[in-house]
## 1
Amino acid sequence: MTRALFDAAFEAARDWHTALPALGAFCDWPDGARFADRPAVAVPAITHLQANPGAATAASQALCTALIDLAPYVEWRHTYTESEVGADFLQRYGWFELIGPDGHYLSDQVRMTIGFWGAGLVYGRHQHLPEELYSVVSGAADFMLDGAETLRLSAGDTRLHPSNQPHALTTTTDPILTFVIWRGDGLADAPRMTKE
Ligand SMILES: [Fe+2]
């Protein structure tokens, strides 16, 4: 049953939130998030995720597997246009909202999304009002943040992006699968590319 796959991913995400102290410090697990029947929207990145999610750890493997199993059934999104990020980027990138104002589970308290990027992609500087905490489920990437040092993150690592602080992400030889939390005002906003 598809619903069972959603609930398995929800539970695995909750376990991940419990396992990583930085996630629990950033926000509580949302109360009363209820399942919403949203249509599946496929993106080409599903195939890439299933073929190679990148290296997980013992702690992240359950979430990684649950997300790969769920991938054909979620409402994937792109946010950006081809003119903004290029055709190759759109072939090998996608995200979906697991929990949030427009998520597969509805909550107004936080927004929890899953993002995937294939190897060798540059996600340029962008920003958004909500504070953001990335956690890496599998794979690796270089995380840039204005005013801070660039860090290569792999499974189990986290990075905080302050409100409207431009940041960017580059994958090199590995893809990356991420679990991302937004908190604060503007949870239903889209990120936007930084102008300067
Ligand atoms: Fe962001």
## 2
Amino acid sequence: MPESDTPVDWPVPQAAYVHVPFCRHRCGYCNFSVIAGRDELSEAYLQALDWELQQRPIIEPVETLFLGGGTPTHLSVEWLERFLQIIAARIPLRPNAEFSIEANPRDIDQAKLELLQRFGLNRISLGVQSFQSAKLATLERDHDEDIASAAIRLAAQSIPQVSIDLIFAAPGETLDSWQRDLDTALALPITHLSTYALTFEKGTQFWNRREKNELTTHDELVELQMYQLARSKAAAAQMTQYEISSFAAAKSECRHNLHYWEGRGWYAYGPGAAGFVDGTRTTNHRSPTTYIRRCHSGVSPIQDEEPIGRVQWACERAAFGIRRIAGLNVNRLHRETGIDVMPLRKAELSPCFEWGLIEWSDDRLRLTEKGIPLADSVSSAFL
Ligand code: SF4
């Protein structure tokens, strides 16, 4: 039997994700499953979520749990407490689990932080994106520098791990203004930083506005300069880059994301949530109202189900793994999946070696300094 056909002992997922779709406003660049201005659906959503969690229960305690969105902290204190009660009742956590929540700076206050602390949240990921009013207005975000800085300081007093997201290459942004964002962020009490170039995804308002030339984009060279600036500023602030877009203080890597990148399975609940359990990838209906309606009718909210073969699994794990700065442990991947990706992708990887984008470091295949900004191209060589 060829090794690609032998059955797989799929690992029991150690991670879980729950999607909360509510937001105050849909930002023009956002392509997530979001519902804005419909807070009256909070109760119906929570009932639906509780039902879904009972249909696909998690038996063994997980090592990481991520409450994302949307904006989970957009829920009122009353509904946020009910949400956390449901989560606590349905998702068992290991004693040292990482328990994260996404939050918007404007939602952060003492009452919500006390609630998060009471339910054992130990990591908060704040969608700051920028500290500058003009850029925040372009991105349609509803906070300013004072609100964002105050939220970070307040959160750091009660939650041990504080992460923020920053967007670069927004329309009209300069290298100087990006530098100011980085300087402001790195002077605040954060333990983790994620930076992303703004993307224009089909179906978003930003996509349409760019098509009409209402929004300008940056050329690749400027984006690259901004990316390299983030890397050097983070390094100077003792934030180690451990993945293409992720920087962390000591022992502050996002363990939940490490589970995704290692491709060892995760549970997912809520509208649009995508899980990977027992070799099958599932995606729930993206529309929050459809999700709620289906769950309330006793119908599964899953829209797509795709069984993953052993080769696809190994190649996808390699594509994500190579984006980690420590590199990809090819032998371990072979051991765990039964697939040796190197001969399988020899033709695609040869140019990456020739151009000096990847190199061997012991048994790890890793990006070189030249390859780090070109990680997407290297990654796609595995797919
Ligand atoms: S706050 Fe975040 S999730 Fe909500 S609409 Fe804006 S980008 Fe999307």
## 3
Amino acid sequence: MEKYSFSELLAYQVSNTKIANSENELSIILDIKNNQNFPTNRRMSSAWLKAIKSTHQRNSSYIQHANQSAIRLREEGNNFYSSKSGSKFDNMINAAQRYTEAIFAAIGNTEALALAYANRAMALQELEYYQQAYDDCVCALETNHYPVKLLHKIKMRQAFCAYYLKDSEKLKKHLEELEKITLNENFSQRVKELQRGLKNLDEETKIKTEETINTVLQLKESTEVKTDTKVATRGRYMIAKNAIKSGEVIFSERISSFVPVDGCQICQQCGAMLIIPIPCHDCDCSIIYCSLKCRRNHKNVHQYECTGYLCRLFEQIGISHLALRVVLEDFPAILPIVSYETDIYKLWQTLITSDGSLYTKTYVNYIQTLQMVTHMQKMSLPNKLWFALVADLLVVYLKDYTNFFAITNKTKLKQCDWESIVSALIFRHIGQFIVNAHTCSSISPTNYDVSSTTNRFGILLVPHIWTKPFHLQRGMLHSFSETKEVSAANLPYLSICNHACGPTLRPKFSGRNFYALADSSIEKGAEIFNSYTVTYKNSLRNNRRAYLKEIYHFNCTCTYCQKPDPDKSYLKYHVYKCRNPTCGEKFVPTDKQDVSAALHWWQVENGGVSCTFCSEEQNVEWFMKFTELLENTNNAQTRLELFRIYDIVDSFLVDFHTLKMEMGNDLMKMLIKSYNAGVKYNTFELNKLVSILNFCQRATIDRWGLQSLEYVTKMSVLWDFIAVGAYQSTQLELKTMLKALDVVSDEYKQVFLNYYNDYLQNK
Ligand SMILES: [Zn+2]
Ligand SMILES: [Zn+2]
Ligand SMILES: [Zn+2]
Ligand SMILES: [Zn+2]
């Protein structure tokens, strides 16, 4: 079986299964089960899962080797920890980074793992990440391999962290534990100090009735988002109940389920990205959490997914993973309500057609999901069969490797019927998510100039960027000058919105919360539109329509697509002025079969650009030159040449030309790096710099608006120049820019605001 890939397995099963066409997911699942080849297919699925699992089994010499490297990495961390040279903060970051590597390297519950956690706790305490340090102590003790002779040390650390977190209950507990251990003079002294601290804490709590003990990042998890009453839904679309001002929140929704994009390191529970990762060791550190609290809260899901992660099952099934996760998260909650049902068909009807009267309000989330639009009926029969068999494979996985179906023990229906129901539910959600899964985008750390380990352990553990937790060094905000798709999410309420190429709403994702912000002012009664693809300012109508047709099966007839000149708003970013002195006409190069390629003529594979009036081929050699020179902006001569090219380009790339903006952005990113490397700019250069920055700001706002991640990422570079004194900004400009942060997630907003307070507000 090993030689079968996932798609080969599925293709084979599709080929030997015959079913009647139906729009009912359960009918298809039951039909599959009645096939004569079904037992063979089931055996194949089991064997395939067994095969992928066995390839991830570790032999003892592998484990030994891994734990040895964990020990070595911890020792490297210790060297940084005790280093006397360089900045203490960066030494601690480096130490914490190595300890994290050690944590990820260790396999099984060993002393190597216990000490890696304990040592990271030590570094994190120095860095003032107290909650994270406290959690690491718990992780170290959890291994049951933490050396008994060092117990007083870790208890002391927990007590200290509890004190800084103002958690008097925990502090009391750890002090009691310490009293039972014989301590030397030094430690006894510290215990006494902490006892005094406890007394003070108790006094404080008497004064303040409510004390926040969690960090900013963890607060977010408890924030409950309530659906706003500004909108009403009618059938399958959404209208504004009242007039809504530009930038206001139209509605908000809690993301009921999400799965991180492959390789994207975010907390599986709260979606946070700026974290010190705590991995799950049972699945080879495939997933991470920001805290033990999140690990606890995610257990109801991960207990069933851990093995799947271990054998890399979810990497292969795409959006079906989100379908599985919704079932794991939401299905158990509805079980008690339908446990009396004895007829599988009736049960299915109850689930998918309920008007909600059957359920109490608590489960309203899953009803919304179950009733979301699906494109089942538009799928070809082989496609339906394919996804139904994927759902069946996932049920085989749940049966063979988890005790998921134990939750159905106390119900009237037989387990094999529940298997069919779960299969049908996963299948239904796949059909829904093909059209209704939402991609969450976020600001993302730039991996331009940081080592590749950044990607794995997160930017908090990158040295030479931070001054203290969530406070960047001056000139380092451009570390956040990119955006990335980080997860796929289920948002049933947002899914009610129809598509328009010029959407009414702007999405904002913050942890597990989604906010729809008004793109412009909305009149009472106006329909609220989302965009399922790239907007009209950033794409050609035909390309957009082809995509919408292929994925969503409709012809877009939105106001933007129906305009007599539908591509005008996009093509204005591609106007070129012929460089032939006897011609000099302005044109948009759309003269090729592939219009998009013609517009992006500067990319080598697209073959240049010719004037549509005089046919003269335009010189594009300068672009290669510019790209080359960007590598060496520390050199004054190079910079002069770069500015010269930029000036020339300005004469034939008209207005907010896409390329002129991209070149400007790239140049600015390199110039702030050079500045940080110690290069000083003369007045001529500073003037150039300011004018290019101004141009890029205006161009970005014209195209994406002020409240957009695109703008904020460009703003990060501008703020660096303001912080280092190379660019002057008025109070009004600063205030406007702060407004842009409304689209940014809480955790990144905090970093930007800290930066603003540290370096900008008094400029
Ligand atoms: Zn979390
Ligand atoms: Zn796991
Ligand atoms: Zn359209
Ligand atoms: Zn010409």
## 4
Amino acid sequence: MAASGLVPSNRPGDGTVAILGAGSLGRLWAGYLPAGTALFVPRTDSPDQSRYPVSYQLLCPDDTERPVTVAWFDPACQLPDLLLVTTKAQDTLAALETVMPMLPEHTPVVLFQNGMGSQQAVAARWPDRPVLAASTTEGANRPAADITVHAGRGQTWLGALTASANPVITKVTETLASTGLEVIPTAAILQRLWDKLIINAGINPFTALLDCPNGDLLTAPLFLEHIDALCREISQLLEAEKLPTASPQALRQRIEQVATATASNTSSMRADVQHGRATEIDYINGFMVSRGARLGLPMPVNQMLTEQVKQLSTNYGR
Ligand SMILES: NC(=O)c1ccc[n+]([C@@H]2O[C@H](COP(=O)([O-])OP(=O)(O)OC[C@H]3O[C@@H](n4cnc5c(N)ncnc54)[C@H](OP(=O)(O)O)[C@@H]3O)[C@@H](O)[C@H]2O)c1
């Protein structure tokens, strides 16, 4: 038996994939996995949730639609091969506390959260479990309860966060690639997460504060006033973290290139504020502030952006 005493620890999985977080990204992966293999993990705080399977239409980038029905995970009957975690960063640790005891200790866990900090917290909490992180440029949103839009095809990089995840990367990659989505194993997942963090830190808070699509940033006074100082802070942080460094100018160029290439997109942070949901600011600019504090580096622009986005959320009633 596993440490929890609830589940056998060495039986192979039954070919199912459990998904914790039945939101946009969870529904995207569920919709592309082979029919019948995806299972959503019910919220333990919502006992009625699992009464009926989840049904929705997945609208694909090639303009096709697929009807999807996903059953709920029942630990008494199923032994998944894999757990995908598609909760928001701030919900992840608490959500996993309720789910981990239901899974054998060898079941790989793949974290899809944006930003940084939640992945490290999960790996530190369960250092002996195979924990992986994914960084994806797939985009999904839910304009209505029964519709999930796959907004654009991207790529998903996958890498180990704990030692016991290394031997399972190939198998996990194969399982995720059975969706037809592009999945690439990497030994440099932390670098991938940092690269995305930098872009998110330079785009998301400004779009949330200005309530504008990504491309409109480039001429906005708030962005123009702060972007160089923000990039200086990030550049110094990379150096202090002993990560591959980049000059503030190069960072600004990267951020502006992405804002231009995604000009009409609404960032997840802007969407969260618009819909009255909590944002992931603590795991993006807030993460940089806390890393800076540990390293003795002041991060006033990251701090200001974090505080202002939080203030915005408070104004929207959270
Ligand atoms: N969407 C994308 O295109 C995309 C792309 C790249 C990365 N990501 C990252 O992926 C993560 C998820 O994003 P998302 O857009 O899919 O968010 P989302 O639509 O808000 O989905 C999160 C889901 O997690 C559920 N959840 C929260 N706590 C839970 C718990 N304790 N037990 C079970 N379920 C729980 C939520 O349920 P309720 O609705 O009931 O609260 C919600 O359905 C974020 O970190 C995001 O940054 C998303």
